[in-house]
Amino acid sequence: MAEKAAMTLIGLKKTIGSKPIIKGLTFEIKRGEVFGFLGPNGAGKTTTIRMMVGLMDITEGDVLIEGKSIKDNFKEAVRHVGAIVENPEMYPFLSGWKNLQQYARMTEGVSQERIKEVVELVGLGNAIHEKAGRYSLGMRQRLGIAQALLHKPSILILDEPTNGLDPSGIREIRKYIRNLAEKENVAVIVSSHLLSEIELMCDRIGIIKKGELIAIEDVKTVEDHSALKDVHIEVHPLEMAKDYLQSEMDQTIAINKKELIVSAKREDIPQILKNLVNRGMDVYGVRILQSTLEDKFFDLIGENAIE
Amino acid sequence: MNNFLKLVWNEQIKLYAKKSTWIMIALIAAIVIGAGLLAKFMDSGIQTEEYGADWQSELQQENAALAKEMEEDEFAQFSNPFTIQKNEYYLENDIKPLPYDGWEYVLENAALTSLLSLFTIIIAAGIVSNEFKWGTIKLLLIRPISRSKILLSKYVSVLLFALMLLVSMLAASWLVGALLFGLNGASPMIVQETAAGFEQTSVLKEILLGYGFGMVTLVMMATFAFMISTIFRSSGMAIGLAIFLMFAGNTLVMFVSQYSWSKYILFANTNLQQYFNGNEPIIEGMSLAFSLTVLAIYFAIFLAAAWTAFTKRDIAGN
C-alpha cells in the first residue's frame, strides 16, 4: 500500500433527478494491477466509469487520477487515462489508421511511430488501412484498445471489453491486458457483468450492486492450491462413506442428494478417493466447486437480474 | 492555439471523408454549369449581341418593336415595359449597353446562396449530433481538451465549409460565365433597377452586396441549426426546423407585421437588402443599425445555448 494509487475514488456519488444511482464508492486502483469491476446489468458500472473519465458530472465525492481531480483539473487528470466506454465506436467512413490519427492529434506528443507501435501491439496489421465500418466487432475492439493506448496512459479503462467476443477473442484480450499490467505497469480497470469472463485476467475484483460496492475480493487467494475447497463426491453407499470420512478426517461432512460435500485441500483429494475405493465403495463422480469467488458473487448479487 | 488548429483540421478531415459533402459540391457545380448552358443556348431573353456604333438608333428600333408587340400580345404587356424603360435609361444617360457577360452571370447566381444555406444547415445540423449518433462523442470528450474548445472547433468548421462552398460557387460561376458569355473587362458598370428607378452601378459592388446579403441568412440559420442539433442531438429536427424557418420566416413576419414587436423577430432582420437601393424596411421604424443589433443578439443567444448544452451535459446512453 506504500505505492501511490493510480486512481482513487472518494465517496463517489451520482444522483439523477432525485434517484441515487451511485451511492458512495470508495476504492483505489494501483499501477500494475488489473481491477475487475463486476456487477449485474444496471448496477452502475458504466455510470461510474463515465464519472471516472469526466463524461458525467460527479454529484458528490471525487475521482483522483495520479492525484489530480477529474472535477477540478480535468485536462491534467484525463491525460493519464485511456478508455473505451461501452462499445468501441469509430468513424465508420475513416480507415482504422485515420481514426487513430484523429485521436493522436488531440493529445500532445503522439508521433506517427507511436501509432505504428500501437497498431502492431494490438495486431491489426494491414486491416488498419481498411475503413472501420467494415471491421468485425473483434477488430473494432482492438482498434478501441489501440486508441486508448496511444498516449501511453497510466490507467486503462475498458468497459465490458469481452462483450460480443468469441472465446478466442476473449483469450487474446486477456493476454493484452495481463501484458499491459505486468510489463508496462499500467493500472487496468475492466468492467463486466460476467465473472467467468474477467476472473482470469483480474488481480482484484470489486463487486457493485445497486450503486454500492459490496465487496472487494482478491482473486489470487482463489487460485491458491492450499486453500480449502468444497469437494462434491458422488459415492455409493452414501452413509458408509460419510461415517468413514467423518471418523478418518475429523470433520463434519454434509450430504446433498446423492453427494457428499467434503471440505478439503486440492492436494488431499486423490488420497480421499483412494481410501473410498479401497474400502469397496463406488465413486461415480467428483467435482470441485469452480471457485469460491463465483459462490460469493452469486451470494452477494443473487440472481443475475436487473434490479 | 496550435491544438485548436489540429481540432479544426480533424473536423475538416471528417467532413470531406463523407460522400454527402462531395455530392453537395457536385450539385452546385452541376447547377452552375446547367444554368449557364440553358441561358446560353435556350431563348432566355438575355442580351448577348453587342450593339454597333449606332447603338442609339438600334435601341430606338428595339423599343418601337417592343411597343408594337405589346399591342398584339397580352403577355408582352407585362414583360416589355421593363426592357423599354431600361433602354430609355441608356438613351437618356448616353450609356452604351454592354452585352450580358460572365460578371452578370455571377451576380444572377447570388440567388443560389439559399442553396448554400441549405447545404450549410445540413452540415451544421450534423457536426455535433453525428458524434452522438456514431457514439464517437465518448472518445472525443475524454481527451485533454476542454469541451468549449471542441465545440468551437466544430462551429468554425461549419463556417469554413460555408466559405469553401461560397468560394467554389463564385469561382465556378465566374469560370462558366466567362467561358459562355465572355467578360466586359475587369469591373464593368451595369444598369440595375432599384426602388428609385434605374441606376448605373459597378457589377463588383452588386456581386459583393448580393452574396453578402445571402451570407447573413446563411450564417444565422446555420448557427440556429448548430444550436438545435447540439441541444437535441438530432440532426433531422435541426435540419427540418432551420429549413422550414428559413423559407417560412418571411411569411411568418408578414402575418404579424401589424404588431410592433414583430420587428424583433429574427426573420424581419435577416434580409438587409431592405435598407439598400431605396427599399423600405418591412416594418416601420427599423434601421440597418437596429437589424444588425438584433442579429448580433440572436447570434449570441444561439451560440450561448449551444455552449451551455454541450459543456454541461452528461454524456449518457448512446
Automatic annotation (TrEMBL), chain A:
One Pfam family linked to the record: ABC_tran
SUPFAM superfamilies for this protein: P-loop containing nucleoside triphosphate hydrolases (SSF52540)
Keywords: ATP-binding, Nucleotide-binding, Transport
Domain of life: Bacteria
Family matches, as InterPro entries: AAA+_ATPase, ABC_transporter-like_ATP-bd, ABC_transporter-like_CS, P-loop_NTPase
PROSITE patterns per record: ABC_TRANSPORTER_1 (PS00211), ABC_TRANSPORTER_2 (PS50893)
GO function term, MF aspect, one: ATP hydrolysis activity
Ranges of residues in domain ABC transporter: 7-235
Family of this protein: Belongs to the ABC transporter superfamily.
Listed name of the protein: ABC-2 type transport system ATP-binding protein
Species of provenance: Planococcus koreensis
Phylogenetic classification of the source organism: Bacteria, Bacillati, Bacillota, Bacilli, Bacillales
From TrEMBL, chain B:
Native source organism of the sequence: Planococcus koreensis
Protein name: ABC-2 type transport system permease protein
One Pfam family, short name: ABC2_membrane_2
The keyword Membrane belongs to this UniProt entry's keyword annotation: yes
The organism's place on the tree of life at top rank: Bacteria
Swiss-Prot/TrEMBL keywords: Membrane, Transmembrane, Transmembrane helix
Transmembrane segments: 21-42, 110-134, 155-181, 208-232, 239-261, 288-310
Any one cellular-component term (Gene Ontology): plasma membrane
GO MF entries: ABC-type transporter activity
Lineage: Bacteria, Bacillati, Bacillota, Bacilli, Bacillales
